[in-house]
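Subject: Rab5-interacting protein structure
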Amino acid sequence: MSTKEGKSVKLTQQQHQNGHLSPSKFAKLFDPEVSWDKDELGDILHWIRQFLGLVCGSVWGSIPVVGGIWFILFLVMSTGIIYGYYALVLKVDEEEFGGHGVLLQEGLFASITLFLLSWTLVYSLAHF
């Protein structure tokens, strides 16, 4: 099989039944037409929360800010972003995945730990 035929076969294998090319993995994250299974969506929400925990903790620690209001702000912001992502961007039916509570809890406790760890570490290293 020539290289040109190999590319043609790969291209044909990537096409959907409707004739469109399959989206890249990154593009899939923002496509409301893509169907998600429970584990895939849970993994995506989990890792988004971990990223938010690391970024917010690092920013909070480097500014520096202290106090419970910043912890509550992180929780509200993180939950709002997760809700906006699955409800407004992906437009998934939350009942198929166990409801809002299940989706909003995905990765929450691990992200809190990562947030507090990064906040404390950055604050300690930058300001002492």
